[in-house]
Design brief:
2 copies of one chain form a homodimer. The first copy, chain A, is α/β, with parallel strands linked by helices. The first copy, chain A, has 2 domains: about 5-55, RecR Domain 1 (Helicase, Ruva Protein, domain 3, Orthogonal Bundle), CATH 1.10.8.420; about 65-199, Dna Topoisomerase Vi A Subunit, Chain: A, domain 2. Chain A has helices at about 5-15, 25-35, 40-55, 70-75, 90-95, 125-130, 150-160, 185-195, and strands at about 55, 65, 80-85, 105, 140, 165-170, 195-199. In chain A, the strands form 2 sheets. The first copy, chain A, has a 5-stranded mixed sheet, covered by helices on one side. Chain A has a two-stranded antiparallel sheet with strand order 1-2. The longest helix of chain A is centred in the N-terminal third of the chain and has 17 residues, at about 40-55.
């Protein structure tokens, strides 16, 4: 990056570290910020800093939140008898966007992966089991990604939760194998929710 | 964006304002920053803020710079008898990356556009003419974009600078490297024919 002023080169470098942002996009974004009013760049920088300051994990469901318990866990309008179990916080937004789900969530923060040495105790599974003890829950919807490792974990959850007397369901197949829940379209994901089935 | 914590929603919104970043990319980037170490997010936010603080226009060539005159204008190794005229600062990097140019630059900051009410006096044209007066320049390379408005401006620059006794040149027109003759547009192919050269 010869003869590009250092602050520009540094921003291009930082932007280039982000997923899906190649060197050309990074350059375009940097020059966009430079051309546009100071307020726009400041608002972006502040949004990034505030994010890291304000966001904690909900002590109930372990979603990212700026209040505790999070808004979903606090919401009396929602159906607290259903818990939808997801692998990561970013899996919740697409489920919400389907408009087909009114229960609450539980974020595991990962998936069981023997190859990477992640066992059940590394995940928020005992916290899930603790939530099931208060007697208000009737159904656990396992909304893990349709791939081999998550599949193994889904079966594991089914095996330990079903004997406790809960209905354990899963998202319907209809999601193509290998897809990422985070990026699925509303329609497919909505159908997958509606067609959830017993194990 | 129901039930997404406000700091996340706000960052998604700010990212979504950037060119080429749609709602899905914005969401992916926001969750990426959330998942990754604080230092990465801080480095990005600081790079954005530093950019807007430190970058000024070079008083000689009007490129973005963090020192004045900019590094190119200060560089004694470069050929100060050639000035390459570009429309905007981001046009300089690709020219530098060719490794074929060792002269200096002049940034006009726009193009003459009667429809948008931009005349020559809104651009850094009188500053260019002032630079030509010191006697060290022999050639002005007009490196404007190949479109109708920029073409009009290129002709304008040619008309006012040539009579002052300078060599005024422009970037060659023709087929881009890797192009398929079969799919080239009429205009490009016509110009490639007109500008054909000896081997």
């Amino acid at each position: 990056m010869r003869f590009v002023a250092e602050p520009i080169a540094r921003l291009i470098e930082e932007l280039n570290k982000l997923p899906g942002i190649g060197p050309k996009s990074a350059k375009r974004l940097a020059y966009h910020l430079l051309r546009n009013p100071d307020e726009e760049a400041k608002a972006l920088a502040e949004a990034i800093l505030t994010l890291k300051e304000k966001i904690k994990l909900c002590s109930v469901c372990f979603d990212n939140t700026d209040c505790d318990p999070c808004r979903v866990c606090q919401d009396k309008e929602r159906d607290h008898s259903k818990i939808c179990v997801v692998e990561k916080p970013s899996d919740i937004l697409p489920l919400e966007q389907t408009g087909k789900y009114n229960g609450v969530y539980h974020v595991l923060h990962g998936t069981i992966s023997p190859t990477e040495g992640v066992g059940p105790e590394e995940l928020k599974i005992k916290e899930l089991l603790a939530r099931l003890k208060d007697g208000s829950v009737t159904e656990v919807i396992v909304a893990t990604n349709p791939n081999v490792e998550s599949e193994t974990m889904a079966m594991y959850l089914h095996r330990i939760i079903t004997p406790l007397g809960f209905r354990v369901t899963r998202l319907a197949r209809g999601l193509p194998f290998g897809a990422e829940l985070e990026y699925a379209d509303d329609l497919t994901l909505g159908q997958a929710l509606e067609n959830r089935r017993e194990f």
